[in-house]
Amino acid sequence: MQRKTFHRLALAATAAAALGWGNAALAQGTTEITFFYPVAVGGPITKTMDGLAADFMKANPGIKVTPVYSGTYQETIVKMLTAHKAGTPPTVAVLLSTDMFTLIDEDAIVPIDGFVKTADDKAWLNGFYKAFMMNSQTGGKTWGVPFQRSTVVMFYNKDLFKEAGLDPNRPPENWADLKTAATKLTKKDASGKVTQWGVQIPSSGFPYWLFQTLTTTNDAILANDAGTQVKFDDPKVVEALQYWVDLGKAGVHPPGVVEWGTTPKDFFEKKVAMMFTTTGNLTNVKNNAKFDFGVAMIPGNKRKGSPTGGGNFFISKKASPAQQEAAFKFAKWMTQPERAAEWSIDTGYVAVSPAAYGTDALRKYGRDFPAALVARDQLANSVAEFSTHDNQRVTKALNDGLQAALTGTKTPAQAMQDSQREADRLLRSYK
């Protein structure tokens, strides 16, 4: 299950169905809550989620949970805000952690801290990985709870490494190594056409996220913690973009914009030897790669690191107090160590707490399949996923600049100056 497979799936739940849930509590003192989950209807993930909801209701007979499968993450945030304005929001929703500032600005969510009352509640809230809390807290409050979270990792084909005379157990450690390995792993046919690329970093959908693997490892942070200021024109950011562009110019990375959704398929078909993608693709790769593969941390330059990614639970401000309490109980139940461990094994997402990695299930899985621990180990060096106020438009300004540089219509320096100017204009009122 990919972190952003959701972005690729067709929308199957209509807006009318998604918005038509009332806020009424059921008879016999049962509290009804609706739960927006970002995936299209059908498929194994909905069965898993339906099963979890049923198990929760069995353990909490006073609460009825209705999951609503609400399409992609983008479609889900639009539906959430539309329903919020109409006065019929879902009680709880899984949305991108980067939607936090947007949800705060729309006055659509309540802080989680208000529901944390017992010692057990406090221990639970303090138990998440600190890297995941960077996109969950601001202004001294906790606004979201990590659920399906990820980092970007590098998958590589060990068989192709051997063929190219590279050590299959020593993936590239830094930018120079990455370029050298990519050069050896690039193959051409008799006519000079590339049949196998050395490395592929997708740049469609959310180029900013993959770009953060380069800015982070070059020791640059794209936005401040308050989400009011960006540094796209920082020389270290420009240098990171230049490196990405230069991989294409060197003929070891596909030219132009590379599709997010087809990158894993290219890897399975041996059209590419190394790919940067979400750890949320781990189960997909494990099930579909017909060759020995490795998973590695992102090669560093000035440092190691990756942005985190993925979705958080958020609780609606317009839900009744009883519904909010029920939603809190549901989010807490869903993120307990045993459940987080199972979810990680089923999907490839990073389990959200060290306690989850202490469970028998995940300890055994990690012993049998060490690749599952790479993303977790990378958390020690991870940074917050890029997020600001007016996030969608500011992110678009950055994405447009990245794609302009990758397609050669602007130099990296010019592209980042233009993106900076647009972001400054959008963020002026938030400073």
Automatic annotation (TrEMBL):
Q: Which Pfam families match?
A: SBP_bac_8
Q: Give the subcellular location.
A: Periplasm
Q: What is the designated name of this protein?
A: ABC transporter substrate-binding protein
For this chain, the family text in UniProt reads: Belongs to the bacterial solute-binding protein 1 family.
Instruction: Return the CDD domains for the record.
Output: PBP2_UgpB
Main localisation: periplasm
Q: Which UniProt keywords apply?
A: Signal
Q: Please list where the region (Disordered) is annotated.
A: 409-431
What GO cellular-component annotations does this UniProt entry give? periplasmic space
Signal sequence, renumbered to the chain: 1-27
Gene3D superfamilies on file? Periplasmic binding protein-like II
Look up and give the organism this protein is from: Ramlibacter humi
Where are the compositionally biased (Basic and acidic residues) regions?
Answer: 419-431
Q: Which superkingdom is the protein from? A: Bacteria
Query: By its UniProt entry, which InterPro entries does this protein fall under?
Result: Bact_solute-bd_prot1, SBP
Q: Where is the composition biased (Polar residues)?
A: 409-418
